[in-house]
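Quick illustration for those who missed Monday's session on complexes.
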Amino acid sequence: MELADKTILLGLTGGIACYKVAELTRLLIKAGATVQVAMTEAATQFITPVTMQALSGRPVFTSQWDARIANNMPHIDLSREADLIVIAPASTDFLAKLAHGQCDDLLSTLCVARDCPLVAAPAMNRQMWANPATQRNVAQLRADGITLLGPDSGDQACGEIGDGRMLEPEALLEAIIAFFQPKLLAGRHVTITAGPTFEPIDPVRGLTNLSSGKMGFAMARAAAAAGASVHLIAGPTALPTPYGVLRSDVQTAQQMYEAALASAAGADLFIAVAAVADWRVAQVHVSKIKKQDGHDVPHLDFVQNPDILAAVAQRPQAPFCVGFAAESDNLEAHGEQKRRKKGVPLLIGNLGPATFGRDDNEVILFDAHGHTRLPRADKQMLANTLIREIAQRLDAAPRQA
Ligand code: CTP
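Prediction with cytidine-5'-triphosphate bound:
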């Protein structure tokens, strides 16, 4: 319920992407928002007000002469109730109107009359997006403090391929949630490792662990929402990339080590959430190891993988380093011990079996002042809290020489 207590004025303008906004409405409501829909005349050609009313649970407004508002001033009342106006899809024509402050229908008028922020998700053909007039309008909108979400690139409804697709509803939801987060990490570069690693034995077998990557991805999402530029280095997981995050996929601990050291060299903050395999097979078999009836089972030799977190923490001018510890028992004792061993200012401890694969988690923070227990919470909420805790310590920490 990351949007509990928030009222979103969702404005639809004419474009085929209107069909995606039905789903966006559901996602916003699920996240706890109150959604008030307003539509242009053109938008009603693509999706009906009936659909949008049924999904939002509130009457939809399309006309500035709508007498359902007692004082007959829907452009004032609707914009005053909103914490944020979201225009999705935002057509070429509507961006042009916004850039020039034109108001010739309810939606454009309430945008000009607003006293809250406005974000717009452009959706149009690639040539319309690339048109110099559109780009001029976009530059003006940015200069006016309007945030543009997207557009995305890819297949377009018209059959062409290029820039101009509206962001998918899930990405828009993330961007809207992020919009409300305090920008505690603005200007910071953050490197995060997440997920399990996979150590091959032969071309079809390998060693891995039960980490789902959810906590690391939630940390990446929270850091990006807090304004950081985030590089997420992920082991094998099918999770979608959080909005606005740069992702590199790796498989083995050695690959994660190389990617993390290169990325962390320019970072202010390094958060190691990955469950890195401690050992790898010394000799990976080139061909599949065959079963041989009546013979011994294969014998595997292991070598230890590099400790990524400790290596980053030991670098000159190391970023502020945060570790996660997955223990199976006695978390309080092991957590502080591990923090010291890794040489990091903050370590977040959790019990592996009680968190792997789950959507919630319970952690203890270990730092030089002792330890603090945080209550069990949904992983995303917990990640938001952890990013606040980390940002405070990062602001207070001198950069290491
Ligand atoms: N870590 C790492 N590289 C490794 C092993 C661990 O960067 N090769 C990081 C993890 O991402 C985590 C922290 O170190 O932030 C602690 O990981 P954990 O698996 O709990 O501890 P280990 O160092 O592997 O110690 P042990 O398995 O003995 O508990």
